[in-house]
Amino acid sequence: MAASIVGVRNVNPTLDGVSAEQEQDANSALTELDKGLRSNRIGLQCEAVVKYPRLFEKYPFPILINSALLKLADVFREGNNFIRLCILKVTQQSGKHLDKILNVDEFVRRIFSVIHSNDPVARAITLRTLGSIAGIISERKNVHHSIKQSLDSHDMVEVEAAMFAADRFAKESKTFAASICGKIADMICSIATPVNMKLKLIPIMQHMHHDVTTAAKTRDICLALLESFPAENLVVVTLHTMSQLAAFSLYDLQEQVQFLLTFLNQDPRHGVKVIVLQDLRLLAKKGPHLWTSGFIETLCQFVLATPSVKLKVGGVSVLTMVFDSVAVQLLPLTSDSKLLDLCQQYCYHDNLILASRTVQLLTQLAKSKRSPIDLLGEAVGCLQTHLILLTGGGGESEQHTELKLCLHCAVELCQTSPTLCGGFVDTIAGLLPSVSDSEAEVLCEALAAIGSSNSQSLQLVVPVIVSCLESSVENTQQITQLQVYMCTLLFQAAGGEGIPNEIHELIVTCAGLANQWLAYKMSRQALRYSQYEIGGDIIKPLTVKVASEHFYHWLMGVAHICSAETRLRHVVTDNANVLQCMSECLELYQKALVSLKAGSSPAHPLKFQCDYVSLRITLLQAHRQLILSCNTFRTAPPPAIATALASTNGQEGTRWSQIVQQLEGSMEQYEELSKKISNVYWSAFDADKASLSNIDILQQSCDSVKAAIMSIISTMQLGGGSFGDRQLWTGGGETIETGVSIETALQNVSSGLNKVLQDTTHDMTSRITFLSDSAKALIKSSHSFPRFFFQTLQSTVLKLAVSPQQNANMEPISIRCDTHLAVKVEGIVQHGERPCLFRTAHSVSISANSTLQSRSTQPGASTKGNEITSNFLTQTVEPHNDYFSVNFLLPFPVLGIHTVTIDASIVDISGAVWQTGPKAMLTIKSYDEVLQRQQQQARYQSRSGTSSSSLK
């Protein structure tokens, strides 16, 4: 049970596999491994060596990596071949940290000394090690010379190692690639070179792309090889090398495509044709904009003419890669194009793989709308037919893959044209009762993808989904992910409105039969689609089935959230109990916030969760305060004398001074809340797009009410509405009922405000009533919790190392007031399992802010009021292999205690700054050396005078 419930807390982890607990520092870890390296037992030495990659990942700072690799270089020079082999593996696994070596010359000198050994195995391991670090020594002439010499060795182990090193250095060094090109060609053409060695030498030439001259020379060599060595294995390797060369250089990509198409039609060997199609697909991926309509027609002719189904599939895959890019907007399509003939001929082919790939191509053409004829209807018909044909096969692997492909195409068409959703939903849902569980799971996943953008299309198939769910529950089958998908579909179809009791009980019964993890996933989906009552009924029994106190508090917090949101659903139609329900809701939300804070741990801080719940509480409190202010106006309207005073003074606004003051207070509350929401938004760097939209909706509702209050206050004071600051939703209906989405509520607020402000009767009661009704409408609207509240699909964490550091007693760092303190900030960007899933950390912004905390009270210390007591410096740096380093020079001219705050932020590729942290703080003590010396002399003279008096 403990293992299954671990996933419950998959919320904002620091990093997978990286513990947030206090562990030994880098120096202690390095010292411990150094003891193992100095051991006389070979086993302990090897154990210490293999631990270094993990040490580099945990502490990837230059000073540690430089020290550790120099130690390993010493062991490499003095050890045996087995230890050298282990060190070779370390260099291969730590490639992104090699450029942090500070003493590259010394490191290479110790490694390179082994190249003069009499043992060919030692020389081979050395060559492979040098090849593994080619990125930092790419222009070392002595290494180039050793590689060339080893290529002529009589020992095959050394020659293979030299070929490995030549491949790595040719990739990194323009000089080496140009100098080795001729020798590689001579070795390939030599009769004495075995065929298996030629097959390893030819791929080296794919790296000869550093300049046009070398690339052209290499291409000519490859063309000569094709004529000299017509054997299939050599032809295949040579063609692939030429394609890789063209993909890197791009200047002769069109020439290579034309050459491959010619080879495709002329060479009769099936294996060669397969490799040619794979290379064409590679070139289509690298440079689709360089393809011409002639290339497309030639390839279509080949696909139509070849009798091999495998080759037809390969050709269609190449066309799919081309038209799944910008090329679909560049290539002209005519009515007599062979591409359209190919689609019509193979869409209903007997081979399901060929047919489904052709349907994918047809879908891309239909989406682009570039064809002279309308292909949308034909694509829809083909997809629906294939969905029926590909189901019911028992879940075979190939058929299952093609089913996923067709469903993906269907979802793409639905996103392109929402009017197609109903037809696809009917087709997919109609297949659910007759397919296997694995196929049904894929079908439900596709329905959920369609329902995420068009939930109304799912409402007509709810009976089918309920029937399938009832069948699985009644047959007491094992509850799987399939049932979770079905429950999700029911939540989506409800659209935030209440679910009938019988379906409610069915979902809760299904969750009771499932294991705890699946039941938690059902409750999580319920909160994401505003079904809080069902979510609460599912999650409450789980709170007593967890093996950790942190898990218990997390589940209790979610349960309190469900109870709080359920209370808002109990608001009656005439809003008579809205304040009572809000008070109970806020009380439950406070309990939820306390539980979430109690469930936080160093590994799972739950910062976003607590911030989001706090925002929800503050927003509800702001709505409640606005309602109370509006109620005050109705229960205590302005006195009769207020109208006479306003007429006498000529200031209409004085008549409404009391309510204006209260509304201004509410507007300030919304303004502060809007800033808090913005801060939470820009701290959620790893959030998915839908979660950020959810936070944006909170801010939109806050800003809408604020703008409405501002407009009403303007009518009170000036007699007219202010539309300048309004950024509200447009359109909408007339009334708001419980369960209506918050987007619809905002639309109704906007349209209602327009009507109120256009009213010429100046009825202030109706305008105050509008504000009150708007707040109640937003309270009653369905609010969903974002995915980021429960799941972190992308994890990006910054770790900082600031020097100098305070000692263990946290005493301030002393610095003279007439000097500057050099602060060095090093850091790394750590990623989870799926880095850059939503956005990429392009650069890191580091700011240093120094502030005077307390002035020195020593006699003689300056107390000028115009002295600079604070500094703010910022730098933006792009990480290299996830490592970055910046330096600051901070002055402290004022004597006393200063605080330096180092703050880090992530800048994405669009230039947006995300306030992700972390922060580091230093305490600095600024002193005057002359003043200290004078004080010491004064104390010495005072003690001397006291001693003289006592002697007398």
Q: What keyword list fits this structure?
A:
alpha+beta, six-stranded mixed sheet, Immunoglobulin-like, 952 residues
Question: Would you kindly provide a written description of the structure presented here, covering whatever features stand out?
Answer:
It is a single chain. This protein is α+β, with helices and mostly antiparallel strands and 952 residues long. Among the domains are: 546-789, no CATH class; 796-937, Sandwich (Immunoglobulin-like). The chain contains 37 helices and nine strands. Strands 2, 4, 5, 7, 8 and 9 form a six-stranded mixed sheet that branches. A three-stranded antiparallel sheet has the order 1-3-6, with no helix packed on it. The longest helix is centred in the last third of the chain and has 30 residues, at 689-718. It is globular and about 105 Å long. It starts with 25 loop residues before the first helix and ends with a helix.
Q: Terminal Cα separation, in Å? A: 87 Å
> What are the segments in which pLDDT stays under 50 over at least 5 consecutive residues?
1-23, 720-739
Mind summarizing the main beta sheet?
Answer: 6 strands, mixed
Shape, principal axes of CA atoms: globular
Number of helices: 37
DSSP strand content: 5-15%
Alpha-carbon Rg, integer: 36 Å
Give the structural class: alpha+beta
Task: Give the tally of β-strands.
Answer: 9
